[in-house]
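User: Fold this, then the next.

Assistant: Folding the first:
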Amino acid sequence: MRTIRLTKETQKDLLNSLLKRSPNNYAKYEFVVAEIIDKVREEGDAAIFSYTKKFDKWEMNADNIRVTEQEMEEAFAEAEPEFIEVMKRSAANIEAFHQKQLRNSWIDTKSDGTILGQRILPVSISGVYVPGGKAAYPSSLLMNVIPARVAGVRRIIMTTPAGADGKVNPGTLVAAKIAGVHEIYKVGGAQAIAAMAFGTESIPKVDKITGPGNIFVALAKKACFGYVSIDSIAGPSEILIIADETANPRYVAADLLSQAEHDELASAILITTSERLAEQVSGQIDVFLKELSRSKIIKASLEQYGYILLADSLEDAAAAANAIASEHLEILTKDPYYMMTKIENAGAIFLGEYSSEPLGDYYAGPNHILPTNGTAKFFSPLSVDDFMKKSSIIAYSREALEKAHRDIELFAEKEGLTAHANSIKVRFES
């Protein structure tokens, strides 16, 4: 990994480099995605069947588009019992964490007859997209579905591509059952997003779409936003570690590589005040690269977006971390809890040497669907709130409105909206 001194100039260059990974920079694919969406809107199932034959190489029809109970049973028979139990324990942790996010509707009343409040209800139907093939991640399925179920969503559907044999990854099906998915459709790509956004003869229109996918899926979610709610336009994975001289270089190197292995666009950054640690981490990375199965991907990631930044102080390190606003932030310093108070922008914060990032990916409970590409400055992890909608409640008595009617009329008249003012005035005509 390249080692550079942290300055205002190097920080600016780094930010510009990282932003190149944003899905917003893939406009050249938008025409293709728009064409797919339009065809699905116009032709419904027929378009889905056609795209499945073209991209996934199998004959889909109305009878085999949906995963059957028999296929679910076969998946459980094929899956390792030990892995099933691990997924169940992970799901229990995820559910327990998200149960604490639930909020209640509320009403506030006053003696003059004023009633104000907020009604909080789940969306009626949500859809989750799950990648297929080699990119099948049961952990992401649990993270996307369980908050929806905790929120009280009555109908949760899932789309995921099948292989050329028309079968879905068994681990994906087992995770779907554990998480609480109600219906599973064997559709992938931008066409799956369009189907959930607008509905077809077989696939219902949903209110919310969540879940990761390739660039075509990301752009389809972006194009359908407004017709349907989405979680986010996720960019490549990223990790930033703040470490001082007390950090274990082997742990730091291992954690950096845990994200670099995702894909060639993943980002892994260490900010440290210790030159000795920087040298040790760099050396340890070379050792790990000889052992890890995805070393080719890791090398490509580190060559493009891997950095060790030498900071003059931990305060400078925290300032740089806030500017980068990383998806995952690990703090491996003498007092990580104090350092946490200096952090304003991060998707998830991991404190101490036994809180490595994969703990959050798989098991701890907090959601691993996190803001990327600096969007942690204004976005949050996926949560129960994402599957809730809120309605304001307003009720005034004549007594309450009489106190305020002249203020409201003046406001409306100043905006030139005389019908607004009149709507209040008529209630106080003599």
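Now the next one, as you asked:
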Amino acid sequence: MKVLVTGFEPFNKESVNPSFEAVKCLPDRIGRIEVVKAEIPVSFVTSSFVLEKAIESCSPDIVICAGQAGGYAGIAVERVAINLQDAVIPDNYGIQPDNQPVFSDGPNAYFSSLPVKEIVKTLRNEVIPAFVSNSAGTYVCNSLMYSLLHLIHLKYHDMQGGFIHVPYSVEQAAGKTPIPPSMSLQQITRALELAIRTF
């Protein structure tokens, strides 16, 4: 079995993005599962293309995309992606869509095909704060999740996919006032590893 795990590049003036920092720390094999890693640009235009190229290059059975959710106090396993791009801030390339669909011919929403509740239960059993989230927002994270599930719907019917949001790393939070919730990079990496082990 093969899993593709992605994280985002830094955005919004941050020097790191804990989603990809944690992905980089994952082992190349977890039990019987081969782990392939990819970095995704924070771009409404190109993120889905980069993801599709990564899928084409490694033919994974499972795709888990991860992104940063500053202010979250735990791991958020996303259940729903909506067909909407509505950005409060521009992406890394200056694009700031206002009430636009991800795909004009797509349905209003897709549900994750990951075992969302099982992942959350597994993380909580290992004393890692985690919860099911019913909104991936309307920024690039949601756009990527929707694009992934749309791609699965159109081309990769046997592939499972979904999205996980992670908090600020401790190092990021230490430089902010007031100090927001955070999680160590080691714990974020462990959470992603445990999510993979649920398969």
